[in-house]
């Protein structure tokens, strides 16, 4: 009856595409390396300079891009499932901006300088607060309008506090650091960032994936879901903490890369029969694919200044969001 | 067998159900009737513990489940809420299959038994013809039948249904009556909130009349729907015909 194998098929295709784009991405960079050199360097043989370029510069950046993209795609899909709303992207509803504020606080007060984990921890803590406020609102009144307006309010508050921090900055170098970092980028990231953010992301993914089997029942609303055996309090907590961990850790290492959590689930949804549970894995793979591909685009651009990844995703994502709002208007309450 | 004993419930500090007692055993269809705001839906929600009862007890087959959260008894009590919205355009069959969620373990797919239950529910609710269409493309009445099928797919010994006939045409109202009767005949206890009194007489083995949070009359339909009760609770007079049929006559306060 249902195409049970189809989500696996979609995931397989996305995984293959992701690996292909990651491989292609390894070949691109400022230093012109032949594919043979890259392969050799990847295996640790060949010119030590090539090994350094591939293993210490290109590979961490690509891996981090995939991790960030997967985190954003997965969180977007899970939060949308929880809130029963296709517009609930971590960026749109203010989770990313709050994580950004947390990271800025850690950077601004110099906590990050003495304690490297401070940036992801602060980012996670602040995104946790934002997600909790949203879920609390959604529990009272799940209308699209309330959520989006609350998201606008949370984003604006986070933005205002970030501006305040920059306004008060005693040091112009710190100021430009914060601004560049907030734009969202994977440039100059190393294995350190992968190790720093990876465990938090993995913990977040585990929580979100464990929530998958309870999300379909929420299609019918919270009370029907509860009558179908869903422990709502536990599910809400699981998705909130899971999304905060993965988005917070992502923002901590890459700045704000917007709209991935909106676009990836939307594109994957028709292929899984709109089932909010089956959506999670394809959405994570799709998010990873989008970020790695966008970063490849950024890196292959020839010009004086490299475009920031977050600028590119926002330029592509914001018009998409507008289209989605118009498209879903008839079902909005 | 589900039973409420002197159950009270409050929403936002205001008591909406006061010392209500109601029971439904296997094979029974108990109609919960009363004017708007009488507390019918709130009583169902208190039975499900979707609102925490402030006093009294909920018993399931004699066991006290008052303090249990709703998800604990998902296999035993199926619930069809009123005016549900469906968030995603799932196919009808997949939506009805959500009713099997309480029977499934962690990562298993639908078993043959689950699929058989889904097909039975689709047939009883007269929704099989659009089983493969996205539920968001259906009309309001078609969607109501699909949601009924979803509740039936649980195949629970207790079914609580909140106005399942509200958006249906006369033919499908009667079809829903037949569906509820079949569920009861198969051994389930059914409590159903109804607004149409004539339909309540046709459907229910017993009626439970609520007014301002209180259960004011309970028993056989003809014993509950007396002129005195209808005048006191609904403020209407009725015209009675042959065979227990009746129609709303006029308002009494004008």
In short:
Chain A is mainly alpha-helical and 333 residues long. Chain A has helices at residues 6-26, 35-42, 48-83, 95-108, 111-114, 118-140, 144-167, 172-182, 191-211, 222-227, 232-254, 260-268, 280-300, 309-327.
What is the spatial order of strands in the main beta sheet of chain B? 6-7-8-3-9-10
Based on secondary structure, the structural category of chain B is alpha/beta
* Oligomeric nature of the chains: heterodimer
Report Rg of chain B: 18 Å
Under CATH, the homologous superfamily of chain A reads ABC transporter involved in vitamin B12 uptake, BtuC
What percentage of amino acids of chain A are in beta strands?
A: under 5%
Radius of gyration of chain A in whole Å, from Cα? 20 Å
Count of helix runs of chain A: 14
| Largest sheet report of chain A | none
Quantity of strands of chain B, as a count: 12
Quote the distance from N terminus to C terminus of chain A: 33 Å
What ranges of chain A have pLDDT less than 50 throughout 5 or more consecutive residues?
1-5
Residue-averaged pLDDT of chain A, rounded? 86
The parts of chain B where pLDDT drops under 50 for at least 5 residues are: none
Keywords summarizing the entry:
A: 333 residues; ABC transporter involved in vitamin B12 uptake, BtuC; 72% helix; disordered N terminus; B: 254 residues; alpha/beta; six-stranded mixed sheet; 8 helices
Blueprint of the fold:
The complex is a heterodimer of chains A (333) and B (254).
Chain A: H1 6-26, H2 35-42, H3 48-83, H4 95-108, H5 111-114, H6 118-140, H7 144-167, H8 172-182, H9 191-211, H10 222-227, H11 232-254, H12 260-268, H13 280-300, H14 309-327
Chain B: E1 2-11, E2 14-24, E3 29-33, H1 40-47, E4 53-60, E5 63-64, E6 77-80, H2 92-97, H3 112-124, H4 140-153, E7 158-162, H5 170-185, E8 189-193, H6 197-203, E9 206-211, E10 214-219, H7 221-224, H8 227-234, E11 236-240, E12 246-251
Parallel strand pairs in B: 3-8, 3-9, 6-7, 7-8
Antiparallel strand pairs in B: 1-2, 1-4, 4-5, 9-10, 11-12
Helix pairs in contact in B: 3-4
């Amino acid at each position: 009856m249902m195409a049970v194998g189809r989500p696996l098929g979609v995931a397989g295709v996305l995984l293959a595409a992701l690996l292909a784009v990651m491989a292609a991405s390894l070949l691109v960079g400022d230093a012109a390396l032949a594919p043979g050199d890259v392969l050799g360097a990847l295996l640790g043989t060949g010119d030590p300079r090539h090994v350094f370029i591939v293993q210490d510069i290109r590979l961490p950046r690509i891996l981090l891009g995939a991790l960030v993209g997967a985190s954003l795609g997965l969180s977007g899909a899970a939060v949308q499932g929880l809130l029963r709303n296709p517009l609930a992207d971590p960026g749109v509803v203010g989770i990313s901006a709050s994580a950004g504020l947390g990271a800025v606080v850690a950077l601004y007060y110099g906590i990050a300088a003495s304690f490297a984990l401070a940036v992801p921890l602060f980012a996670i803590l602040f995104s946790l607060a934002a997600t909790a406020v949203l879920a609390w609102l959604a529990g009272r009144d799940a209308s699209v309008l309330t959520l989006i307006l609350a998201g606008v309010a949370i984003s604006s508050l986070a933005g205002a506090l970030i501006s305040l921090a920059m306004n008060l900055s005693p040091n112009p170098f710190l100021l430009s650091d914060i601004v560049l970092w907030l734009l969202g980028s994977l440039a100059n990231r190393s294995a350190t960032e992968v190790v720093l953010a990876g465990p938090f992301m993995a913990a977040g993914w585990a929580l979100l994936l464990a929530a998958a089997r309870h999300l379909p029942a929420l299609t019918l609303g919270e009370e029907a879901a509860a009558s179908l055996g869903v422990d709502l309090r536990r599910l809400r907590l699981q998705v909130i903490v899971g999304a905060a961990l993965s988005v917070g850790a992502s923002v901590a290492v890459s700045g704000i890369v917007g709209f991935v959590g909106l676009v990836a689930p939307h594109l994957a949804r028709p292929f899984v029969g709109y089932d909010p549970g089956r959506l999670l894995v394809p959405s994570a793979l799709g998010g990873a694919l989008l970020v790695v591909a966008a970063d490849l685009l950024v890196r292959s651009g020839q010009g004086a200044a490299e475009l920031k990844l977050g600028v590119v995703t926002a330029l592509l994502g914001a018009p998409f969001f507008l289209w989605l709002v118009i498209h879903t208007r008839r079902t909005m309450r | 067998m589900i039973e409420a004993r002197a159950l009270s419930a409050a929403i936002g500090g205001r008591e909406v159900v006061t010392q209500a007692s109601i029971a439904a055993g296997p094979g029974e269809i108990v109609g919960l009737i009363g004017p708007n705001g009488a507390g019918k839906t709130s009583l169902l929600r208190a039975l499900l513990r979707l609102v925490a009862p402030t006093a009294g007890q909920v018993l399931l087959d004699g066991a006290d489940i008052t303090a249990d959260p709703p998800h604990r008894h998902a296999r035993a009590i199926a619930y069809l809420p009123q005016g549900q919205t469906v968030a995603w355009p799932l196919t009808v069959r997949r939506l009805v299959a959500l009713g099997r969620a309480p029977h499934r373990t962690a990562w298993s797919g639908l078993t043959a038994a689950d699929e058989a239950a889904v097909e039975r529910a689709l047939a009883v609710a007269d929704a099989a013809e659009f089983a493969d269409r996205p539920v968001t493309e259906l009309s309001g009445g078609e969607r109501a039948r699909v949601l009924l099928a979803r509740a039936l797919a649980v195949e629970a010994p207790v079914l609580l249904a909140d106005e399942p006939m509200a958006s249906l045409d006369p033919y499908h109202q009667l079809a829903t009556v037949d569906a509820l009767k079949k569920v009861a005949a198969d051994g389930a206890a059914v409590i159903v909130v109804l607004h149409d009194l004539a339909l309540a007489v046709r459907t229910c083995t017993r009626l439970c009349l609520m007014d301002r949070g209180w259960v004011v009359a309970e028993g056989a339909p003809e014993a509950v729907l007396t002129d005195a009760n209808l005048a006191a609770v609904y403020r209407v007079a009725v015209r009675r015909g042959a065979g227990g049929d009746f129609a709303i006559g006029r308002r009494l306060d004008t």
